Amino acid sequence: MEAKQYVEKVFEDLLKRNPDQAEFQQAAKEVFSSLVPVFEKHPEYIKEGILDRIVEPERQIMFRVPWTDDNGNVRVNRGFRVQFNSAIGPYKGGLRFHPSVNLSIIKFLGFEQIFKNSLTGLPIGGGKGGSDFDPKGKSDREIMRFCQSFMTELSRYIGQDMDVPAGDIGVGGREIGYMYGQYKKIKGLYEGVLTGKGLTYGGSLARTEATGYGLVYFVDEMLKGKGLSFEGKRVVVSGAGNVAIYAIEKVHQLGGKVVSCSDSNGYIYDENGINLDTLKKIKEVERKRLTEYVKYHPEAKYTEGKGVWNIPCDIALPCATQNEINEEDAKTLVKNGVIAVGEGANMPSTLEAIDVFLNNKVLFGPAKAANAGGVAVSALEMSQNSMRYSWTFEEVDAKLKDIMKNIYENSVKCANEYGCEDNYVVGANIAGFLKVAEAMMVQGIV
């Protein structure tokens, strides 16, 4: 079977098997679009059904999570863990607590995680999990009871050499702490089964900053490749969570000026540059909405709803959620002079938006490459847990920077090798895929 035929057939089969999973279909289509030349060069991958196997999770787990609220009412949510591919190491990927969570979203995230983890160069496979539980508006006790119930079931399927979850949207240090305590109680083991832990019980320095810092390191490499830098550049960031906050911090350190951030209700525009101390106070300490920002900085403007991508900028860093940049947003960014886009969230640009960026020669860092910093430092946390050792912040940050530079260089190398210069989407997809495919080839049909 010819390479193009093979890829098309596998995608058709995927659509039939997963008819209502739009996010998973989108993630697969984006990867598949890069792989035809790989199968032309490696027909043995077709014979061994590598693509057929890589798009089907090794295991999909769905379970109920009963818990009681502060009024004594019984609530029930759904929990998920999709263990996608363990060819290069134990499953590794975050847990997302958000009302939008369903099997399609967890599968898209897990599928992306395979290649993201591969790109780090570290021995970790791909997985993802979460629940449709919404932590917003819940008390600490309610969140604790939910996390304990969630982990009671999840603990059956995870372990430091099997599957090591981390945080994601809605899952920060508080949630990780509650889940780790429950795992330890059930299993009687003090092991590195979760990452993103607190520093007092096995967490890693620089883990909090890792995804945001890593994103900026990757975009900085893209800029350097064209003789550019962040110095003096105007930057628009979406989101106001962990990734956005530390992306803003690193951009400021490199001489850029971030003029926006957003949450699910609206966005802030601050021509003087987003004040990090205020943002951290609102989001990390008080856990309040962005509307509070203008109380401290009345010269800034808060706008309800979407529209952050209408702000003119040199560099755009989407750090909120999937599909937040559509085709029209991309056209607006291009019209306003954007030169680089780095994806801090998972799949924040639609396929049509990506085409707009690439067709207009915008430097584009895809999520599986640009936001791999978080999982990279999670893997470093696993290493420290195994050694019963802690590296300094500077040591971890230096390792992170090297990892992001290597991801960029490998993406460039693969893009050039397959005739797609400056297309980091193709380069990252191929670089991530090849390592996993080779591991699957030598391990047999399992």
Description:
The protein has three domains: 3-55, no CATH class; 59-187, 3-Layer(aba) Sandwich (Rossmann fold); 209-369, NAD(P)-binding Rossmann-like Domain (Rossmann fold, 3-Layer(aba) Sandwich). It has helices spanning 3-17, 22-41, 43-47, 50-54, 103-119, 140-154, 173-187, 210-225, 242-253, 276-285, 293-296, 327-335, 351-359, 367-370, 373-387, 393-417, 424-443, and strands spanning 59-68, 74-85, 91-97, 125-131, 163-166, 234-237, 257-262, 266-269, 301-304, 315-317, 340-342, 363-365. It is an alpha/beta fold and 446 residues long. The radius of gyration is 21 Å and the shape is globular. Strands 9-8-7-6-10-11-12 form a seven-stranded mixed beta sheet, with helices on both faces. A five-stranded mixed beta sheet has the order 1-2-4-3-5, with helices on both faces. It contains 17 helices and twelve strands.
What topology does this entry show?
Elements lengths: L2 H15 L4 H20 L1 H5 L2 H5 L4 E10 L5 E12 L5 E7 L5 H17 L5 E7 L8 H15 L8 E4 L6 H15 L22 H16 L8 E4 L4 H12 L3 E6 L3 E4 L6 H10 L7 H4 L4 E4 L10 E3 L9 H9 L4 E3 L8 H9 L3 E3 L1 H4 L2 H15 L5 H25 L6 H20 L3
Parallel strand pairs: 3-4, 3-5, 6-7, 6-10, 10-11, 11-12
Antiparallel strand pairs: 1-2, 2-4, 7-8, 8-9
Helix pairs in contact: 1-2, 2-5, 2-17, 5-17, 6-7, 8-9, 8-15, 8-16, 9-10, 12-13, 15-16, 16-17
